[in-house]
Write a structure and sequence with these properties.
Bound molecules: fe (iii) ion
Radius of gyration: 15 Å
Number of helices: 12
Shape: globular
Low-confidence stretches: none
Structural class: mainly alpha
Number of strands: 0
Largest sheet: none
Distance between the termini: 12 Å
Order of helices and strands: HHHHHHHHHHHH
């Protein structure tokens, strides 16, 4: 099954960024690993955008004003295979962006063009009350860490390890 999950990334889809989804996933996981993240969070970083691969809307969907809710699609689908320590940061990674935009002006200013475009469709920056509630959510801290790797994982020149590196840790986390 894991091989089939990883194979979903065998596409050139880019969702408006300068790199493929596969490169983005692998860079995210490599940043998580370098940052000392625990195995479930490394796997979350690797698979955080899998909802994009599952719903397959046209690549320019944010230009057309459609939000696929890829974080919910991905987390729900992955919950069949992985525990909440993997799926919850994925489910919350868009909320984490809205939180960071509310709390850190520098973060919002540094978002990529595609990420800024999708933010408007995802509900814009959180209100102060929403941000306070988010901060109290279990896994919020993990989702925020994931979000920062997500933003950083858009380097066209990076050469991260491939999927095979993550097979053992993902396999060890899978439900039996
Ligand atoms: Fe991402």
């Amino acid at each position: 099954m894991l091989t089939r999950i990883f194979a979903l990334y065998d596409t050139d889809e880019r969702y408006g960024e300068p790199i493929s989804q596969e490169a983005h996933a692998l860079q995210s996981a490599a940043l998580a690993e370098t940052d000392g993240a625990p195995p479930p969070l490394i796997v979350a970083a690797l698979l955080h955008d899998i909802g994009h691969m599952l719903c397959r809307l046209p690549p320019d969907r944010t230009v057309r004003g459609v939000d696929s809710r890829h974080e919910l699609i991905g987390a729900k689908w992955l919950a069949r295979f992985f525990p909440p320590a993997v799926t919850e940061p994925i489910r919350l990674h868009v909320a984490a962006k809205r939180y960071l935009c509310a709390r850190e002006p520098d973060y919002a200013a540094a978002l990529s063009a595609a990420s800024t475009r999708s933010l408007a469709l995802q509900g814009a920056a959180m209100t102060a009350a929403e941000a306070a509630a988010f901060a109290d959510t279990p896994c919020a801290a993990d989702a925020l860490r994931l979000r920062r790797w997500d933003e950083a994982a858009k380097d066209p020149d990076a050469t991260p390890p491939g999927f095979t590196r993550y097979y053992p840790i993902a396999h060890a986390l899978m439900r039996r």
